[in-house]
Design goal:
This protein is α+β, with helices and mostly antiparallel strands. The chain contains 12 helices and 6 strands. The longest helix is centred in the N-terminal third of the chain and has 33 residues. It is rod-shaped.
């Protein structure tokens, strides 16, 4: 009997010990003054677990606890899916958002906000692409002009066409307008009918001295026609070799068969040219120009040829003075402009090439 009782007690103790092994270790209440049991070796091996846990989770979970954990897991999965959906929807909205321009920090130019589409031009690039062409070097912005005019000026510069210098906002004078037309290829010369009409108008023309309007030149035996040493060709030999001489009437009559009073001074004729006869008459020494005047072999009086030249240059826009038959400063200036536009030597004189070009020879 005693043995049976001992066996029962031992079995009961073994069963109780097994049951206690399955139950979590209960933490003693701090009010009893006892310390919590020491951590197990496995708990100490876990990194970062420095604080004591108030209570160990049970090694086994009941059915209700498993069900609750599954429900929490499903809720977390649903929440994660919702967040992904929101991010995807936001990405679509950003991609379809209208383009907005924001200034950059470095240049101040406008750039596209991210998500507004690739490959689009900035506002500065669009303005540069749509800007009209100008006629400028790359150093800065020039005045704007139509594209076709800018290209035309480039071609003119390549062909060596000179552009007339006029102040901005002012219309060029008639002579400059005519020179521009000639420089653009429209070479302008008087037609034969126009030349004949001018000649008939001055068939009996006689020049009168006008010292107040056209000052007279003075005698200087050392005088030479300015620039004549650079004029090439036999047509300009008389200008290169000319120098004034002072003689009396007898000397001139002995050397030249024709000496005439023209426009306040005496001239002598020699081989197609009229020259001032300095000293022929002390009372008639008015000369607006000191040098040879070409008229051709017909020996037309020089004042008539000068008047014809003035009239033609006036009609073409070169001469702005009065047709007076005097080779004064305005007439010489007009001759220089015409000669330059025609590609002739700029002599400012009535020479053989100029008279041939005008059709007056």
């Amino acid at each position: 009997m005693k043995k049976l009782t001992s066996l029962l007690i031992g079995f009961s103790l073994a069963w109780a010990g097994a049951a206690l092994a399955q139950q979590p270790v209960e933490q003693q209440s701090p009010s009893k003054g006892k310390h919590a049991p020491e951590k197990t070796h496995a708990t100490q091996a876990q990194p970062g677990a420095n604080a004591a846990k108030p209570q160990e989770r049970p090694t086994k979970q009941t059915g209700a606890m498993k069900e609750r954990g599954a429900a929490n897991e499903r809720a977390a999965t649903n929440q994660l899916g919702a967040e992904k959906s929101k991010k995807t929807h936001a990405g679509h909205e950003s991609a379809n958002a209208p383009e907005t321009n924001l200034p950059t920090k470095s240049t101040g130019e406008t750039t596209n906000e991210p998500g507004a589409g690739k490959g689009r031009k900035t506002r500065a690039q669009e303005e540069s692409a749509n800007a009209p062409e100008t006629g400028t070097d790359v150093s800065g912005r020039a005045a704007e002009m139509p594209a076709h005019r800018g290209k035309q000026q480039v071609e003119e510069r390549k062909q060596g066409v000179k552009q007339p210098m006029t102040e901005p906002g002012t219309a060029p004078p008639a002579a400059q307008q005519n020179r521009r037309a000639i420089g653009m290829g429209a070479v302008k010369k008087p037609d034969p009918q126009q030349v004949q009409q001018v000649k008939s108008q001055h068939a009996t023309f006689r020049a009168q001295p006008k010292p107040q309007q056209v000052p007279a030149v003075t005698f200087n035996q050392n005088y030479r026609v300015e620039g004549s040493d650079r004029w090439q060709g036999a047509q300009y030999e008389v200008f290169r070799s000319y120098h004034p001489e002072w003689h009396d009437q007898g000397w001139y009559r002995a050397h030249y068969p024709r000496v005439e009073l023209i426009g306040g001074g005496y001239y002598y004729f020699n081989n197609g040219y009229w020259y001032p006869a300095w000293g022929y008459s002390p009372s008639a020494q008015y000369y607006a120009y000191d040098g040879p005047i070409y008229v051709g072999q017909r020996a037309v009086p020089p004042d008539q040829v000068i008047a014809d030249t003035q009239a033609l240059l006036q009609q073409m826009g070169y001469y702005k003075g009065e047709v007076d038959g005097l080779l004064g400063p305005l007439t010489r200036e007009a001759l220089a402009g015409y000669q330059a536009d025609q590609g002739l030597t700029t002599t400012e004189a009535i020479d053989e090439p100029t008279l041939d070009s005008l059709g007056l020879a």
